[in-house]
Amino acid sequence: MKLFFKDQAFSFELLRAVSYSGYQGAELGECLAIAANIREGDFNGWFVEWNKAAECLHKLGKSCIENGRKVSGREALLRASNYYRTAEFFLSPDDPRRKASYWGSTDTFREAMRHMDFHCEAVKFPYEGSYLSGYFYRASGDDASIPKATLVMLGGFDSTCEELYFAGAAAAIKRGYHCLIFDGPGQGETLRIQKKPTRFDFEVPVGAALDYLETRPEVDQRRIALMGMSMGGYYAPRAAAFDNRISACIAYDVLYDVWASMLNKNPKLRIVERLSPAAAEFVMGMAMKTNISLRWMVQNALWVYGLEHRYELLKAVPQYTLREVAGQIKCPMLILVGEADHFVSAEQVDELVKRLHCPSTVRIFTKREGAEEHCQEGNHALLHQVVFDWLDEQLPSKII
What distance in Å separates the CA atoms of residue 354 and residue 337, rounded to the nearest whole number? Predict the structure, then answer.
């Protein structure tokens, strides 16, 4: 599905921003008006236009709140948060505007949350001598004295935990689930402020989150689900393979083998596998000059993985595979993929299912449904229906 732009990366990120309209994170006309002022492939122009819109909404939201218009204020602030996040997307990691835009996104989000009609709590919990931060939501209208099923949601290669509110948390609390979203290593605050890159053994940060949930009496410890978005489709199954506290796992979308997926979608990368480090560094640099998507992917990967040189990706990324651990997963799995996903191939689904011994359900979203893109951008209503109907079956309210 191409939206406005011919370039795959720009089109997808516009679609991604628009898709959060279901929970007041965007408006279609607003997003198209922003896009109309951006030239194809212009990373700086992308930032300028999205940031300009975010700043206008930020001011509008504050004004509404100050004048007692809570609903109008929080909705403007939610859109500002999403647009600030979208603005920083293509900036280089060392661009000073990136951190400012990130704080714009988190500040507007937190202000909006203070004026919502449900329980939202900014939280921090211990992690390897430091902390991980996020948000804990109670199910809408929930009686805190009755423990309930809880969804833990993870982001991926380029997300923040604030984005996860639009992608899954809002849908969860409306359906009677508590929800914990947080920034793990290589994500959001943990990457931008604490400078902690990602790690292949993501069961460690997930374990810290589950330890934290054990301190919350409103959480039914027998009914905890884990859902991973994008590269979280690797992180979540990886964690489920090592932690039996997870009662159900959702790979949204599945990433069985991150390097294999990158090779499948960028077959020319196979050439650099056979080159010396110096030659690989040069070839990848040249390729990035003419391929916008590759330029962004490599630039972001160095940041997320905590690497200095492009050739180091050839050793680092192949560690992110479920090949040796998928058979250890005991809980039921829901495996999602879009038929036109530009990051994930159908082979990723087949390979994972072959190695699983646990019950699994595969859902392929189609172009006809308008949900064929990565992470079902374009039809989150259908995504949430599939996810939470499945979860209702896996985590019934009465467990014998």
Answer: 16
Q: What pTM value is reported for the model?
A: 0.95
| DSSP β-bridge partners for residue 148 | 219
- Spatial distance between the Cα atoms of 253 and 264, rounded to a whole number of angstroms: 16
More confident residue, 362 or 2: 362
What value, to the nearest 5°, has the Cα angle with vertex 309 and ends 307 and 312?
70
Cα dihedral 208, 209, 212, 214 in deg (nearest 10) = -100
Quickly list DSSP for 23-44: GTS--HHHHHHHHTT--TT-HH
Dist CA 218 CA 234 (whole Å): 28
230 a catalytic residue: yes
Cα–Cα distance, 56 to 30 (Å, whole number): 12
CA distance 156 to 12: 16
- Choose among 126, 186, 142: nearest CA to 161: 186
Q: Provide the terminal-to-terminal Cα distance of the chain, rounded to the nearest Å.
A: 45
Identity at 290, one-letter amino acid code? T
Q: With contact defined as beta carbons under 8 Å apart, do 356 and 271 qualify? A: no
Contact criterion met (CB below 8 Å) for 336 and 252: yes
Q: Does position 399 have pLDDT exceeding 70, yes or no?
A: no
Look at the block and give the residue holding tokens 């997870």: 246
Instruction: Give the β-pairing of 248-252 and 178-182.
Output: unpaired
CA nearest to 340, candidates 83, 20, 4, 15 = 15
Q: What is the pLDDT of residues 15-33, one digit of tens each?
A: 999 999 999 999 999 999 9
Which band of pLDDT confidence, cut at 50, 70 and 90, is reported for residue 143? low
Main-chain dihedrals φ then ψ at residue 328, nearest 5 degrees:
-85, -10
Q: 299 φ, ψ to 5°?
A: -60, -45
Helix, strand, coil percentages, rounded to 5, for the chain:
50, 15, 35
Q: At what angle do helices 277-290 and 292-305 cross, to 10 degrees?
A: 130
Distance CA 295, CA 190 (A): 23
- Strand bridging mode 248-252 / 360-365: unpaired
- Relative to beta strand 120-127, strand 130-137 is antiparallel
Q: Which of 230, 276, 293, 360 is catalytic?
A: 230
Rounded Cα distance, 236 and 224, in Å: 12
